[in-house]
Amino acid sequence: MSGHSSPHGPADGHAPVPPPPGGYAEVGYAQVPPAAGPPPTAPAPRRTGRLALIIGTVVVLLLAVGFGLWFLFREPPIPDPEPAAEELAAALQEGTPADFPLAMDTSASPDEQYAQVFEQLLTAVGEDSGTVAVKSVTPVQEGDGGTATATATLAWTWPVATTAAWEYETVAQLTYPGATDGEAGEWEAAWNTGVMVPGLEPGERLAVERTEPARGEIVTTTGETLVGLTPVHHVGIDKTRPGWDTAAEKLGNVLEFDRATTDDIAAQVDSAGEKAFVEVITIRDNDPEYDFQAAMAIDGVVGIPDELPLARDRDFARPLLGSVGEATAEIVEESEGTIKPGDMVGLSGLQAAHDEQLRGVPGLAVTIKPTEGGEDREAFTIEKKDGEPVAITLDPETQLRAEAALADLDNLASAIVAIKPSTGEVVAAASGPGSEGYSTATLGQYPPGSTFKIATSLAMLRSGITPETPLPCTATINVEGRQFQNVPGYPESAMGDAVPFRTVFANSCNTGFISQHQEISQQQLHDAAASLGLGVDATAFGAAAAMGDVPTEAEGTEHAASMIGQGQVLATPLAMATVAASVSAGHTVSPWLVEPTGEEAADEAPAGDLTADEAATLRSLMNGVVQEGSATALQDVPGIAGAKTGTAQFGDGNKAHVWMLAITDDLAAVVFIEEGELGSTTAGPVMHEFLTGR
Fold first, then answer.
1. Is residue 64 in some structural domain?
2. What is the pTM for the complete model shown?
3. Lowest-confidence range among 363-377, 416-430, 653-667?
């Protein structure tokens, strides 16, 4: 059979072998019969695989446990030093370096050292003004046992002046001590005084010295000093000296104070500290009004010498020039760091308006004071810059003449303003003693009364009226139930139904002007006034000033009142002097007091539409006031070219503000008195005295 094959047998010709009992075991792809013998309880290969799986699992578990134990007990990583450096900078900025972990080699308190080093600097710049920032941190340098080091560079800024800051850098050495019991440690800084200021040794401190600049003078445009440093004595009572308790009474007697003032001084002295100096008055050297030597002879009274910026005379243009004194708390706050408590600043007038230019810039020196002996080391310096002078157009002689003319008006506000028409320079701006320190000359606003008829006349000329045009000048005129009349004593010879406009103007006929209220609109009045400089901002003046107001709208009786400078029409003496100056110059004048500097000098003068022909006609009308009208008292004034009086009733109608305008050669002036009879009778004599000096 060996040579035969079965049609169903394998390819090699062998007969198929029946499977053994229990079947075949698979090994790879071959089918291998199991070993001979009794069948096992479980196949051996399956038992081996299961054992291998168990062993593998155990190994994996052991590895996981080992890794977990390693993870749990490993050293934590070194923290980033940058946040620590930021915390150190914040602690230094707050003035509490001990809030940060410090490595110390001294028992000194870091916070106390900080306070001692920066005490004067903090006072100079303000406790919240300094800043500390991290400029850079070097890469971490790892050491043995998980330690590390880094270096932080800190940028300090002290705003010692509004335009300058003291800036410097210090270095802080940071150390990382490593982990403790598996917990990450904290970065520490090696503390030394050099962290606060470069090169600062233990026990050294900073000293700050402020150098005050010389205050600029107020001078004339020709260079004459009007306000400059003047020797004075601060006179007061020193409570450390014997006799202080009776000094107030004696000093009040010597200085001729009234009872209330003396009692007030005594109360201030009693309430002051036991070592206080209570200043009573500042007396300029050789002031004839006060007996300085007699004051110094009083026990307990002291005179401290000083220099202050003062005018040539105590009262010379005082409301205009202003005063200088210690900065108020409000001024210090508004300055945003420019001005410090105790600084001398302008408190009013030109001194306040141009304080920055006059005050200058203080100098400042920051030095390092050694502990014992040795020389100071300069740390930072700002050179002082003295104040610059302010030049103004006042002419001292003209100003003094104006003040003398107002000297007796101690119970009424009053003013004289004089302008040079050819240039617009204000050569006098005097406010009388009754103004009580207020600059009535430049700021006092009142109805201008009949002086405003210059503006009304310009509006009428523009509407076609000529100096010869006949107008009705009646005793009274009624407008919507309100009766207007002329001033008491108005000459009957200048009244009638057809009076030439020239005569109406010369005698200031109220009813003649009001008769045209329906022909001239309020807007036309406003525009004519603006052509003369009234109601137009004096942008070139250089100091606080008001130029009046002429409403553009008014109806009925209000408009009728505007025709004669009452109603809602307001003017200042400066504004009315500008009106007179414009008429004299032949064009709209822009008044100026302070000489412009820098870019201000390039500003173009405000434009105006007053023509030379219009001004010539107005001058002719004003000349008639001197020749035949209400200002004939000025006929003897040299060079007089024209004038205009004004009376503006107020209150119950029994009181009046009084005015007079005048133009001579190259001078335009106005006199204002808060209350009087008539412009001609009250303001007229004052104008005459001012123009003639007698």
1. no
2. 0.77
3. 363-377
